[in-house]
Design brief:
47% of the residues lie in helices and 13% in strands. The protein has 112 residues and is of the alpha+beta class. The protein has a single domain, classed as Winged helix-like DNA-binding domain superfamily/Winged helix DNA-binding domain (Arc Repressor Mutant, subunit A). The longest helix has 13 residues, at 16-28.
């Protein structure tokens, strides 16, 4: 599912491996702090944010924020780039699109 996905949740039966990968992404997104971090990075100027700037808005300790960011990176939702002593993050929009399309293909109209 990293680049493409053979089927969608609404378009047919998912292969076990695709279902497991999609469930892993949902597990990462089941934490409100992680969803918030993802949105903060997506809304950041130039589309990237320094980890140092994400501690305050989340109201959690630096180690906790770093853990959440690592979970988002491991799920492929964020990309991390080390610059000096700081880590910078940006949303992997292609990965987000893959997850979105696995849930809601472009052809879905909502009609039954």
């Amino acid at each position: 599912m990293t680049d493409t996905c053979c089927s969608t949740v609404l378009g047919g039966e998912l292969a076990e491996s695709d279902a497991a990968e999609l469930a892993a992404v949902f597990k990462v997104l089941s934490d409100p702090a992680r969803v918030r971090l993802l949105s903060l990075v997506a809304a950041a100027p130039n589309g990237e944010a320094c980890a140092c700037d994400l501690v305050g808005p989340i109201g959690r300790s630096q180690p906790t924020v770093s853990h959440h960011l690592s979970q988002l990176v491991d799920a492929g939702l964020l990309v991390r780039e080390k610059r000096g002593k700081w880590a910078w993050y940006r949303v992997d929009r292609e990965r987000i699109d893959v997850v979105r399309s696995a849930l809601l293909p472009d052809s879905f109209t909502g009609a039954r």
